[in-house]
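Q: Could you fold this chain for me?
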Amino acid sequence: MLTSILLVIVLIMVVSGIYFLPVSRVPFNTLYAAVPEEIRQSLQGFRRRHALRQVQVDGVDWHYINVGEGETTILFLHGMAGGYDIWWQQIEALRQHYRVIALTYPPVHSLADLTRGIIAILKQEGVVGFNVVGSSLGGYLAQYLVAGLPVRIQKAVFANTFPPNDIIVQKTRISGKLLPFLPEWVVMWNLRKTTTKAIYPASGRNELVAAYLMEQSHGMMRKAQFVSRFHCILDYFQPADQEASNVEIMLIEANNDPLVEKTLREMIKTTYPSARIKTLPGAGHFPYLNRPEEYTGILEEFFNGN
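A: Sure. Below is the predicted structure, expressed as structure tokens.
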């Protein structure tokens, strides 16, 4: 009897040890070894120069940056596997003429919760009207903001994203239910696998895209954040009626986006029929990383009214 109990205890300890294996940390210089030195230094310098600000909403800490001196504010919203600094190349280019706010989502599980945090940040910084740029989950969240805060938004960019739909729900029905129960190291391993097999090739094998996502999966992002962000992409809402809205909208897409299938890319065009559309051939899911100058030029042209 004692032997059986001991075996059970040992088994539990082994299983627990495997489940709670920590996510491996990898030094920045190792992850970014294949990225050109100029780009590596630019990202590191950006992180050093811009200290994160903080606001607390319902007991949750939100971290963000506010840079630039322009009269017009641009709010940048990242996707599932990102943070405030994923936009650094655009922010550095736009800060001379715009005030730019970028944030990292904490683990909150609905678009309404994300919006409460954003409103608190804007209030703390004294921002009333603003423009918004969102990609992937950030593009979905930007649509939610336009639907709920149309009088505060002048222009909106929905990039590499999708409208409210049931396609993603159906395709992730099983994996979505399992996700919260998977070990953190398994979730991050799967992100690295997706990066290697789909995202990296679609980007033209851009080393910055690979390095940034690998950094996220090696401890920059936690499982709780990833799970909450997944829940947000399933959070259905009624999109804004573009014809009745004064918000000017632009859609940015790639014709080889591995994470937003063609059906969803066509659906968002139907959802916003008057939107300006910019298609980037062969750009993948993160064109603001692998084609930063072209991407920034598109934003500048749109926000300058050209």
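A (continued): Residues 6-11 have pLDDT under 50 and may be disordered.
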